Every structure is written in structure tokens, then in C-alpha cells.
Amino acid sequence: MCESGSAFAEAQASMPRPAPGAAADPIALEPVDEVEIVTLVDNVYDALLTSDERTHRAGSGAGAVAAPLFEEGRTFTGMVAEHGFAALVTVRRAGRSTTLLFDTGRSRDAMVTNADRLGIDLGDIQGVVLSHGHFDHTGGLAGLAGRRGVRSLPMVLHPLVWTRRRFAVPGREPEELPTLSRRALDAEGFEVVERREPSLLVDGSVLITGEVDRTTEFEHGMPPPHQAWSGSGWAHDPLVLDDQALVVNVRDRGLVVLTGCGHAGAVNIVRHAQRLTGVDRLHALVGGLHLGGPAFEPVIPPTVAALTELAPSLVVPGHCTGWRAQHALAATLPDAWVQGSSGTRYHLSA
């Protein structure tokens, strides 16, 4: 029983919400000719992964540095991997290219270090999108700030990214998470754009979903230890309502969906994108799916089943997906599943 009004409201918010039919305000997402996703930060770096026609790996020769103890006077450092996520998204349409930064990783230096080792100038990006406010997706802003061309960059985010959050695991002292500062971002010159609703960027060819409809019966969000500050106390924050994804429609191929953690649920996110755009076909799903750990492992079978039915051509689960989900997806979707790794480029074209 939910005896208090706040508890009842929380229970209601956690329940799946029906979203029948087409969207009331459908998004006319303009098709693109090509999209390239470069994973700047992921939990894994494997220098022995091989490239193919749609995937280019950084390889073992990335990041040459001076090293006097070697005969050649140098060695290779490879890419930095950490528990975080960051990606560059470049869309090409009608001969024009635009590059956005989607999330920034956990630490100050990993993203900018990997960009330098890949020969990528972060001063060329034209905007920043934050999937949500957790620090393993926003920490790299400290390294990005002050770089050439970064000041006055538009930054699209959900207004709840500023939410104070903590993990209160029974039997342990609660651990408050780092909270992103609006004041600090303003001081660095970022042009912060807060939106709960969907946003269309790059001449209508990139969709930021805004809040995602929770329509499945199995994607319930974060467990009770994940809490948010309400202004008067701490309460369970299952939904992480600031979670949003980036969506592109590749001409004649279908939707490419990029997630940060996928707190809204991978299937919820894909179905939400399909409903908003009216595009049924899922071409690719890339990013964190948050299926790791005991609280989320029961969600793996229905998630894999739903994604199998969607039949994407490419699935690159990264970051917080977890090894059990990786194995399940690799076994069920062997032709689509690709191992993620820091420094990898994914090229998808019409």
C-alpha cells in the first residue's frame, strides 16, 4: 500500500504509460546521407579488434609518445578506457557535414586525450548534447572547457541534469554523486539550452528525444538505492527523467539511436524514437544499455527478445550494458552485434 501522497505519485510515475497510435506532434526527421559515430570514451579499449567496412578501430599503434627506454625512443599508449561514455556524431546531408559531441566521459582528461590521439580537433564541434546528468557522462566537460572554439557552444540538456543524486546502499554510508553546476557552465561560456521536449538540430536531421515515454512492462529504471534530493529530503529516483537519446534517420536504412546509459530502457527509447518520427525501421543502436548487475539482469531476456524483433543491422552495446547482456546480444544477434571500444569509428551510409 502507498499511504502517503508522495509515495503514491512515485508509484504512479514508475508504472508504464500507454502511448497508443502515432505521436500527437510527429517529428519530421530529415534523412541524412551518412552518419559517423566515433566512440571517444567507453569502458573498454581492445587494441586487437579488427576493422571492417563499417567499423574502423584505433588499433595498437594509437597514441605514440616519447619513451627513452625503447630503442626507437617511443611507444604506443593506445586509447583511454574508463567507466564513462562520450561520442562524436557527424551527419552528412546534401554535401554538408555537422559534428556534435554526445556526452563527455567520466574524467577531466580521458575524452580530450583520446581525441588528440585520434587527431580529432574538438574545436570543430558545433554543439554538445548531454544524455543525462550523471558524472560519468559529464566529467569531461572540465577538459573541454577553454579549448579553442568551445566558448559559446550550444549545449542541449534536460532541466533535471542539475538534480542532486546519491546512492544509499543499505549497510553503507550514502554516497552523494557529483552534481553538474549550471553556474560553472555559464561562466565557461557554454550556451545552455534546457528542454524537456524533443529537439531538432542540424536543419532538422538530428533528433534529441527529450523525456522518453516509459511503455514497456519490464524496464522499471534504477533500484531503490538510487535517490534524488527533492528540496526537503532524499527519495527513490527510479526514472532518471533527464535521460534522453540522439536519433538520426539514414536514408533508406532507418533510425540510428545513440544512448548514454539508456536509463529510460533501450526498448522504450527505440519505440519512442519510432513513434516520434514515424520511421519503423531500426538500423543501429549504439551506446550504454544499463543492463549490468543483479538489479538489471532480469531485464536482459525481454530486452534481447524485443531488440531481436526489431532486427537492427548494427548493435554496439557499450559502457554500462554489462557482460551478461553483451553475451546474450552477441549470441542472439551475431550478425549485428559489434564489440565496443574507445577510439572506434562506425560509418553508416544510405
Explain what the structure shows.
The protein is an alpha+beta fold and 350 residues long. The chain has one domain: 4-Layer Sandwich (Metallo-beta-lactamase, Chain A). The protein has helices at residues 5-14, 110-117, 135-138, 141-144, 182-188, 266-277, 300-310, 323-332, and strands at residues 34-41, 55-56, 64-66, 74-76, 86-93, 96-104, 128-129, 154-157, 165-167, 175-176, 191-194, 199-201, 206-208, 226-229, 234-236, 246-250, 254-259, 282-288, 314-318, 345-349. The protein has an eight-stranded mixed beta sheet. A six-stranded mixed beta sheet has the order 12-13-16-17-18-19, with helices on one face. A hairpin with a 3-residue loop joins strand 16 and strand 17 (254-259). Helix 7 (300-310) runs parallel beside helix 8 (323-332). The model is unreliable at 1-16 (pLDDT under 50).
Using brief descriptors, characterize the structure shown.
350 residues; alpha+beta; Metallo-beta-lactamase, Chain A; six-stranded mixed sheet; disordered N terminus
CATH superfamily: Ribonuclease Z/Hydroxyacylglutathione hydrolase-like
Reported for the largest beta sheet, the result is: 8 strands, mixed
- For the CA atoms, what is the radius of gyration? 20 Å
CATH topology: Metallo-beta-lactamase, Chain A
Cα distance spanning the termini: 53 Å
Structural class: alpha+beta
Amount of helix:
10-25%
Number of strands: 20
Strand content: 25-35%
Organism: Actinomadura chokoriensis
Region (Disordered): 1-22
InterPro entries: DHPS-like_MBL-fold, Metallo-B-lactamas, Metallo-beta-lactamase_dom, RibonucZ/Hydroxyglut_hydro
Pfam families: Lactamase_B
